Amino acid sequence: MTQPDAFNPSDPLDRLESRSIHILREAYREIDSLAMLWSIGKDSTVMLWLARKAFLGQVPFPLVHIDTRFKIPEMIAYRDRLVKQWNLPLLFGTNQEAVDQKQTYPDGKLDRLGCCNKLKTQPLAATLSGKGKRYRWNATAEKYLEDTDTRPYRGVIVGIRADEEGSRSKERYFSPRTADNQWDFADQPPEFWQQYNTTLPPHCHVRIHPLLDWTETNIWQYIAREKIPVVSLYFDRGNGTRYRSLGCAPCTTPISSQAKTPSDILVELSSGALKHVPERSGRAQDEEQGGLETLRKDGYM
Amino acid sequence: MRNRAVSKRFVKMDTCNTTQWDLPLSVVFTGHVDHGKSSVLGRLLAECEDLAPEKLEKLRLYCQRNGKLFEYAFLTDSLRQERAQGITIDCARIPFRLANRAFQLIDAPGHIEFLKNMVTGAANAQAAFLVIDAAEGIQENSRRHGKMLSLLGLKQVVVLVNKMDTVAYDQAVFESIQHTFAPFLAKVGITARAVIPLSAREGDNFISLSSKMPWYHGPCLREVLLGFESPASLAEQALRFPLQDIYKFSADKSQRRLYVGTLQSGELQTGDTLTFYPSRKQATVKSVEHFPQSRTRATAGEAAAITLTPELFLERGEIATHAESVPLSSGTRVEATLFWLSKEPLTQSKSYQLKLGTASVEARVEEICDVRDASTLRGKDCAIVGQNDIAQIRLHFKQTLAFDLDVRFPESQRFVLVDGYRVAGGGLLTDKLSFAPAELDDQLSQRKMKWIGSGISHSERVKRLKQTPTLLLLTGPQRSGRKALAQSVERALFERGQWPTYLGMGSVVYGLGADLSSEEGNRLEHLRRLGEASHLLLGTGLIVLVSALNITDTEKQWLEKIISPARLTTVWMGSSSPTLTADLRLDGKTSDQVQTVLSYLENEKVIPTYGN
Asked: Is A6's Cβ below 8 Å from some Cβ in B?
């Protein structure tokens, strides 16, 4: 007899969950200074949930969020609510200088890829290396304080999925990055039999991808099953639209949909209504020359 | 390769209930460079309409803009460098649904330079296609990939003879490839489930049989894909629970230890007694933890967390099984089949980090027994293992490692070797070897170099204790009374004012040798440890008495080396030994065995003559 709360080897979600937990535990054991990127989106929120499972209710490494200052306001409110509720070790970084000097796409000074680079890729590198300012949630003071710890993170857990886009379909679970943050995709190390490249050359870091085998459908099935709270922007809140992929307000557009719950979204996905619309089609930066591959080579997620 | 028979079975599978197939099955496309792996995969996606027309249209536009002929391969060759060179560099994983079954299609590169990427893709697959160009026929990597699939343990393999349009759909061409390739596959231990003639460009034999090849009656690509079986659950097998980590935190802030790891096979539940290898420590499962709710058991494939009574001190890499279950092997020397992927060759005497399950040990290459080209399978006359070669090697570990030599437990039989910062090769452990005598000299010279001597000299001790430090080894067949005699001699020496001590084999095996099992394969290592323990006691000036079963001349020589400069005296008990030249032989006819031994020691000036 299968017990209600027992692992079921023929349930794909149980298998995916276990594999991801194994990878998270491996990263925690083998990589000495580790952080997890939390973009507030559905995928990295699922990853956060998996981390709490892997470490029995704790998150034993900081969660890093890059605030471009152009995020949809609900995203920040949702972030701060979960930080308090789950007692999360959140750390955020931002390129305040670029925002202040209006060196952005919404200000008309940069194209979309240039803006992504300025507001996401650059502060991400600076936050991870400790060279840029980081702000850490202080549960006692109930506010973000400048982080006094400026040590670099050598391992970064990122919630990308292979089914999202071409270059992500070629990723490793443990993917090394060179000292200058580059992804050498033409010469990736072999990775098989659950043996990962966890020994790092000096000055290099590694990206860890526990969600590589999940699909968009798996993510929503899991959110529905585990009742994971996700930001309300993913659902139709009365005007017949919802976001399918989240980013900065100026470059992200919602899709027409009346899905109000994760189950509605699953019905929508299985109906085939979105079959021929790529998931990231609401993300304008992917459309530009080179798109995501160029961004990723230089250190984008 | 009887296609017609296979076909019937596939049709039957196609119509069966599909809900049980919800776990995606990983299928890898392998074969020689330019034989059309990515094209077959791309065409399959397009034929099965699992593709956004927008995506296909974008691809057409891309090809137009860049002056390229439209290629289905570009669907998976998504990196710009791949499209520019027209080759696949790294594996893409593509989720795919067909007839309500989930697949993950893995596109592997065929270029020899990227064999490491092919292995990365194929090792994660449960089934494989081997694509061969009809016009070019079997090439170097057709065979090499075949051999690799076999080493990686893939059982479900289907051969696709692609580009049949370029040979005018000629049956003779197809059959010639089929007949040439079958013996090679048989040699590497693969039985192809089917051999299908295809054309990715024209879409022939993809979702139904093409009228262009009326002579072919086997299954089409769609049928074989749906006929692949999902891997069986390993829950019924003996437990293998490799320890990944130990946590001392939990949401309730109790300081209990959580032992975490992913079960590779079997099940465990609260109350079970587990044995951890190689330490052989035992404990009972107190609880099976999970967040947010606890569980009572864990199953193969599950990333589990348990607590134990007692809370053992254990290392990552130990593997647990049930106390009464199929035990693991453990040891420090093994033989293995290896495939090597690194540009830097594997060389003798060099040390690598060996990772098996969650264990990691330093492994020195003791011997390279045989090196072969993975494509021709011909032996190479060389002392190193080069990139993309396969080899049989012997490894010596710095610490004792637990492992399996049984194909039922692949996760504890497979290993990778890390050279510097990268996984450089992989392989399967094929045999366990006993402790190496050749190692002994190295070890002893190392010991001599590092030895920290006592301030009291050997001669001072001899003078004070009035005896020459000697190891008295009593040996012989079972039930020859070795132990009893050893203890009687010890007592007699003591009564005469000497300083003897008896060291039983059991005292060593369960103490110093607790990390080794008592099985026969570890005998030499146990003897070595007995020797080392005796060496320390002899250094204090004592006469040490030990008893051991059936010692041979070779073993006697090792012990002599280990305890040198102290002397070894061997006493054989029973009728004469065929394998040992003993200093003294005693049998049932010897009237006073204790006195005989004492007289011998007096004659040898180990102890003074009685009364003097």
From this structure: yes
Find out whether B188 and B225 touch, Cβ atoms under 8 Å. Answer: no
Q: Which amino acid is at B168?
A: A
Task: Mutation target for B interface from A52, A169, A217: give the one with most B CBs within 10 A.
Answer: A169
Does A29 touch chain B if contact means CB atoms closer than 8 Å?
yes
Other beta carbons within 10 Å of B251: 14
pLDDT in tens, B333-392: 899 999 999 999 999 889 999 999 999 999 999 889 999 998 888 888 878 999 999 999
**How many of the other CB atoms lie within 10 Å of CB of B5?**
10
| The total number of residues written for chain B in this structure | 612
Q: In terms of DSSP bridges, do strands B267-269 and B297-299 run parallel, antiparallel, or are they unpaired?
A: antiparallel
Is the CA virtual torsion A270, A274, A279, A283 positive or negative? Answer: negative
d(CA B377, CA B532): 45
**B79 vs A170: CB contact, 8 Å cut-off?**
yes
pTM: 0.80
Is residue A155 within 8 A of residue A205, CB to CB? The reply is yes
State whether residue B536 is helix, strand or coil. Answer: helix
* ipTM confidence: 0.92
Give the Cα separation of A107 and A119 in Å (integer): 13
* Cβ-defined contact of B79 to A215 (cutoff 8 Å): no
Closest partner residue to A15 (CB to CB) among B245, B292, B301 is: B301
Cα B559 to chain centroid, rounded: 32
Size of interface A-B (CB pairs under 8 A): 178
